[in-house]
Amino acid sequence: MRNNNYFQSRDEENILKIRELRLELPAFCGQFFMGIENQTMPLTRLGYARDLKIFFEFLVTNTQEFYGKKISELTLDDLNQVTSTHLEMFLDYLTVYKVDKKVYRNGLKGKGRKLSSVRALLKYFFKKEKIDNNVGTKVDTPRYRESEIIRLEVDEVVKILNISEEGSGMTTMEKGFHKHTKERDFALLSLFLGTGIRISECVGLNVDDIDFENNAFTITRKGGSRVILYFNDEVKDALEKWMVIRNNNKEIPKDEKALFISLQNKRMGVRAVEKLVKKYASYAAPLKKITPHKLRSTYGTNLYRETNDIYVVASVLGHKDVNTTRKHYAAMSEDIRREAATKVKLRKD
Question: Which residue ranges form the domains of the chain, and what is each CATH number?
């Protein structure tokens, strides 16, 4: 029987990956992962495991104190010998390094994330009184400038929807492929642009999550909470047309409950959705690097323009901290500055 809970399947897969990586890490990392299991998602712990592997590889290949030791044989006594200087050296190492002849690079954001993983490990064992000092607090997080927020403008939203619905501008070969996916693609893009859902939320949707009577659907947010969101009649129309096609496809297994199905008649994955968005965006906005997250930003921007209420946007998008929302959508500073210019009168009428 197929497991139609996308998020449960994803978590189970990530847990198995963590277990594989733990075999390449010091034994004490097992205690760390068990200790944080109830406070973190498997995807977070998997990120920690990958980052810690890089850190320990650095220690045994690029520091005098740990050079030549086997990662799997490192102990808490070794961890206790890690200094803030080692962490600063690690940040420098991350700029560009080579493993098995493959070169890896990190910008300031990537360095900050990997430092955060090492800090989590040090903080845990310091709290458990297994190491004497939490040297992670003595190293500054790399500061990076937030990248410009990219989103689709109103005319570009119209273009991307028209192209996905009609196939305008495509070659004959592309149109031949497009006729088999146009209802699905139009519905998927409409859902992104009309509700601002995350890509994982979209991929995880099942047919049973959609309530056409109330223009509502249930999604699984980060952390596993279930939330009801609503869509307008445009999105409803697009979804209903796709459901007709989906329901008439006799090749889809009866136990496949995913809303969006690939041409292989199984649940679309994250990569497939990313490629779909990239393809249509290349026609509608060729100079912009549009991803599913940028469609989410587009929706957030439009909702903020309509409501001028950052708390409404935060609630709909599922931001736990309204400052996250404010940073991204109140950052429409050009619109705000333009409106502000009309508010102050130098001379009263």
Answer: 6-138 (no CATH), 154-340 (1.10.443.10)
Phi, psi of 126 (to 5 degrees): -70, -40
Q: Tell me which residue of 340, 314, 318, 339 sits closest to 328, measured CA to CA.
A: 314
pTM (two decimals) = 0.81
Chain centroid to CA 217: how far?
A: 20
Query: DSSP state, 4?
Result: -
φ and ψ at 216, to 5 degrees?
Answer: -135, 160
- For 129-153, the DSSP string reads TSSS--GGGGSPPPP-PPPPPP---
DSSP alpha helices (H): ranges in 220-284? 233-248, 270-284
| Parallel/antiparallel/unpaired status of strands 226-230 and 216-220 | antiparallel
Tokens encoding 76: 């808490």
Tokens standing for residue 93: 């190492």
- 50: closest CA among 1, 133, 123, 106? 106
Ordered DSSP codes for 273-316: HHHHHHHHHHHH-TTS---HHHHHHHHHHHHHHHH--HHHHHHH
Per-residue model confidence as pLDDT tens digits over 207-263: 999 999 999 999 988 777 889 999 999 999 999 999 999 999 999 999 999 999 999
Contact assessment for residue 248 and residue 256, using Cβ atoms and an 8 Å cutoff:
no
CA pair distance 25, 46, nearest whole angstrom: 13
pLDDT in tens, 331-346: 555 555 555 555 555 5
Residue 216, strand partner residues: 211, 230
